[in-house]
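Reading a protein record of the kind used here takes only a little practice. The record below shows the convention in full:
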Amino acid sequence: MERIYELRKEAKANGEPILRDKSFELLLETIRIKKPTKILEIGVNLGLSGIAMLLNCQTASLTGIEIDEEKIALAKENYKEFGVDKRAKIFQGDASEIIPVLTGEYDFIFLDGPKGHYFEYLPNLLAVLKVGGTLFADNVLFRGFVDGTVKTPHRYNTTKNSMTKFLDAITNDKKLSTTIYKMEDGVSVTEKLL
């Protein structure tokens, strides 16, 4: 895992949008507790979070969705370096088009894609999430705009409104149990009860 932390530090220095440190630790802690066998990751980037999840859950396989071809090539190189390439595959394309046609069931979904689409993705993600499965979403407080700690610039209103709808949906649905963590950019951890 030490090498993962090194690569995360490099990626951060290069301006890559990677999961923040406390959120990353919460992700790994959740993975160790839940011990999923099938993980879906929306927004693969360099593959570092996916690798960390697989290293912390030796029986799991991962399906990722990523739109950027260059990022996919780098993620695949990283998968190979860490010896998880046989347990990880990536669909290249727009998550808005891929998520609705996913088949099978996942017991863990890591949502870290385009923030303005979380609410749009939600029904299809819940459809492939097993009962007892976990939806882990990053950036749910979106720079403090969602909970009102920071005034929202006009250009982010659509994203803020979409994220607000997403949070309302996951916290008010009786078939779900959600905890919102107000650390860093906000994380939600949702369990599908029914």
The beta strands are 38-42, 61-66, 88-92, 106-111, 129-138, 176-181, 187-192.
